[in-house]
Amino acid sequence: MAIDPTLPYDPQNIFAKILRGEIPCKRVYEDDHALAFHDIAPQAPIHVLVIPKGAYVSWDDFSGRAGESEIAGFVRAVGHVARQLGLVSPGYRLLANVGRHGGQEVAHLHVHLFGGRPLGRMISP
Ligand code: AMP
């Protein structure tokens, strides 16, 4: 079910638990600002989630409250992961769902990184 991105950050969301090491993930990359791991239900040959380490619900929340170093660190981490996975030359897609219309299910900001095959139309009808 989609989350309400206007609610305060819930520290019990599943990605907060992954960040605290309470549940496992298949880690791809980690630095001071971000963690990247494989999606548990991949929708492409490569489907990785990149999340900031700070407590932010959505892109809107992050862009409004995060500090410059957090924002720069997170954006750089997304690019780093794409390069690390060899996706720059074939290409890839980034997606950040927000709220009900975006279909956001986990209330911690995450960017989906898809690749490994031609990805078709930008959004379904
Ligand atoms: P969204 O709809 O943008 O909120 O996407 C949430 C994503 O998190 C979905 O693609 C899920 O498959 C993924 N997901 C949920 N739980 C886990 C988990 N424990 N480890 C990795 N990915 C997960």
Structural overview:
By secondary structure, this protein is α+β, with helices and mostly antiparallel strands. It has a single domain, classed as HIT-like (HIT family, subunit A), CATH 3.30.428.10. Helices cover 27% and strands 19% of the residues. It has four helices and five strands. A hairpin with a 7-residue loop joins strand 2 and strand 3. The structure holds adenosine monophosphate. The site of adenosine monophosphate (AMP) has 11 residues, from loops. The site of adenosine monophosphate has 11 residues, from loops.
Q: Quick recap of the structure?
A:
The chain has 125 residues and is an alpha+beta fold.
Record keyword descriptors for this entry.
125 residues, alpha+beta, HIT family, subunit A, 5-stranded antiparallel sheet, 27% helix, binds adenosine monophosphate
Number of DSSP helices? 4
Which whole number gives the mean pLDDT? 97
What is the helix content? 25-40%
Strand content is 15-25%
CATH architecture term? 2-Layer Sandwich
* Class inferred from helices and paired strands: alpha+beta
Head-to-tail CA distance between termini: 20 Å
CATH topology: HIT family, subunit A
Unreliable runs: none
The top level CATH class name: Alpha Beta
Radius of gyration: 14 Å
CATH homology superfamily name: HIT-like
Report the count of strand segments.
5
Attached small molecules: adenosine monophosphate
Please tell me what the overall shape is.
Answer: globular
User: What does the oligomeric state look like here?
Assistant: single chain
Can you tell me the number of structural domains?
Answer: 1
**Order of strands across the widest beta sheet?**
1-2-3-5-4
